[in-house]
Design a protein that fits this description.
Helix 2 links the parallel strand 3 and strand 4. Helices cover about 35% and strands about 20% of the residues.
């Protein structure tokens, strides 16, 4: 059974908290299960994660900090007691790895099903020219999905694979507008989109071409349609192991 560690989270906006809660849920399968601390929790928090850019969080920390609680600080001017410090933009897997290190977990251990984390170098070919020239830019990903919860979940799973340059679109039209302005190495589109067949056709015909197009859909008919449009079919509900394998393939 995973060791339970309650984490007191101070500050952060709704989007950051949602991403953090998703990573906490993913940690349930690992050796340490992180849970958001609340006053009614059965035990005291062992870790405080503080948004240093939030005045209210700084004030709460000064009033409530327990010497037994380890501290991870996000932002500038960390206090002397901070064991780890991070700057924005946040790379959440790095934060969770720092949390793991505080509790004796190896930093390269994945939070989900014991799978190794796929690095960007493993998942994507090195496109840098020979001779030691500067590294190629990080792969850019577009998620087109009308569900905020699913978009945040996908962002968290992509982040665990160190794919952090991610754009979002709520509708197919928004997604196609993004594709017209930027080149994405991976696009993940969902069957819940309106005019989804048209969206798939447009994505497949995009110039420059999208190297990896993934279509998320539950029914067999939609998965067959995805293949007809040259997309990789990804079955819903989401399976973390399947996503891991998919990122390795692409």
């Amino acid at each position: 059974m995973a060791e339970q560690v309650f984490v007191k989270v101070m500050g952060f906006d709704d989007t950051e908290r949602h991403a953090l809660n998703t990573l906490f849920r993913l940690s349930e399968a690992g050796p340490v299960h992180y849970l958001l601390w609340a006053p009614e929790a059965p035990s005291a928090p062992r870790l405080a994660l503080v948004d240093g850019d939030s005045y209210e969080a700084q004030l709460a920390l000064g009033l409530q900090q327990d010497a037994a609680t380890q501290l991870i600080w996000v932002g500038d001017n960390p206090p002397p007691g901070a064991l780890r410090t991070f700057s924005r933009p946040l790379h959440w897997p790095h934060v969770v790895q720092a949390m793991d290190s505080l509790f004796g977990i190896l930093p390269d251990m994945d939070l989900d099903l014991g799978l190794d984390v796929v690095t960007s170098e493993e998942a994507w070919p090195d496109t840098a020219p020979p001779g030691g020239q500067p590294e190629a830019p990080a792969p850019r990903v577009l998620v087109i999905n009308p569900s905020l919860e699913e978009r945040l979940y996908l962002r968290a799973r992509l982040a665990l694979a160190q794919l952090t340059d991610v754009d979002e679109a709520v509708t197919g039209a928004e997604g196609l507008a993004c594709v017209s302005k930027a080149h994405y190495q991976l696009v993940i589109a969902d069957a819940a989109l309106a005019d989804v067949a048209w969206v798939l056709r447009e994505l497949r015909g995009a110039q420059p071409p999208i190297p990896h197009l993934v279509f998320c859909a539950p029914p067999l008919l939609w998965r067959l349609r995805a293949r007809l449009h040259g997309a990789v079919a990804w079955v819903k509900p989401y399976d973390p192991a399947q996503l891991h394998a998919l990122l390795q393939r692409v």
